[in-house]
């Protein structure tokens, strides 16, 4: 993240097993887990959507620095591998034109390191940014999404994953589609959540 060399062997590597970031960057990305529930689905977020995360996401997603995909989950990886060990991941979709322009699908890459099966089951039919939509238009985001296929998920535990939670419109729309496939269990994990108040900034 800081473009400085990482020593191949150090006490930091031995203690924490970090492979993608240096000690300074490791401390800079400070996880603050938040948990909440919406429509019967448990949500978890890793970071508050503040400057450190925003800058990293911009370099990765906006500037196409694909190597940064490994950094986001570095500190939380052991926990996530254990917590979601028997889940199938379904990532939030990007429109195919965005993927073609960027050269990669950013959400699946962010979560690839967990090492779990991942299925891109949902697709975006319109290339529209949520930030360009008003409150009423965001509520209709479900009309811009559809299932690529309709497999039965009755025996599967599903984890929906995304990079940012703002109003939750996209997450709720995606989860509504997944619910149609009747998963055995359904949860959601977002990399960062826009904080609503000071209390959320100090959550652990």
Key features?
two-stranded antiparallel sheet, Rossmann fold, 21% strand, alpha/beta, 204 residues, five-stranded mixed β-sheet
Which CATH architecture? 3-Layer(aba) Sandwich
Rg measurement, Å: 17 Å
Task: Tell how many strands the DSSP assignment holds.
Answer: 7
Oligomer: single chain
What is the CATH domain class? Alpha Beta
General description of the model:
It is a single chain. The two termini are 24 Å apart. Helix 8 links the parallel strand 6 and strand 7. This protein is α/β, with parallel strands linked by helices and 204 residues long. The chain is built from 9 helices and 7 strands; from the N terminus they run H-H-E-E-H-H-E-H-H-E-H-E-E-H-E-H. The strands form 2 sheets. Strands 1-2-7-6-3 form a 5-stranded mixed beta sheet. The chain has one domain: 3-Layer(aba) Sandwich (Rossmann fold), CATH 3.40.50. It is globular, with a radius of gyration of 17 Å. Helices cover 31% and strands 21% of the residues.
What are the SSEs and their pairings?
Blueprint: H1 11-16, H2 23-28, E1 34-38, E2 41-48, H3 51-62, H4 77-83, E3 87-91, H5 96-102, H6 106-111, E4 122-124, H7 135-138, E5 145-147, E6 157-165, H8 169-179, E7 185-193, H9 198-201
Summarize the structure.
By secondary structure, the protein is an alpha/beta fold. The protein has helices at residues 11-16, 23-28, 51-62, 77-83, 96-102, 106-111, 135-138, 169-179, 198-201, and strands spanning 34-38, 41-48, 87-91, 122-124, 145-147, 157-165, 185-193.
């Amino acid at each position: 993240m800081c473009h400085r060399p990482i020593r191949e062997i150090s006490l930091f590597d031995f203690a924490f097993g970090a492979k993608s970031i240096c000690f300074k960057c490791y401390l800079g990305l400070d996880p603050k887990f938040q948990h909440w529930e919406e429509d019967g689905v448990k949500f978890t977020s890793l970071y508050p959507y503040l400057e450190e995360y925003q800058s990293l996401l911009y370099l990765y997603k906006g500037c196409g620095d694909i190597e940064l995909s490994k950094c986001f989950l570095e500190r939380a990886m052991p926990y996530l591998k254990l917590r979601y060990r028997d889940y199938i991941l379904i990532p939030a979709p990007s429109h195919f034109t965005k993927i073609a322009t960027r050269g990669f699908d950013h959400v699946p890459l962010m979560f690839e390191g967990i090492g779990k099966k991942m299925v891109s089951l949902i697709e975006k039919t319109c290339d529209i940014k949520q930030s360009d939509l008003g409150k009423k238009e965001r509520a209709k985001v479900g009309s811009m999404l559809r299932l690529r296929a309709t497999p039965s998920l009755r025996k599967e535990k599903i984890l929906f994953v995304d990079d940012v939670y703002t109003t939750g419109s996209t997450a709720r729309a995606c989860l509504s589609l997944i619910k149609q496939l009747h998963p055995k269990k359904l949860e959601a994990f977002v990399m960062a959540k826009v904080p609503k108040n000071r209390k959320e900034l100090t959550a652990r």
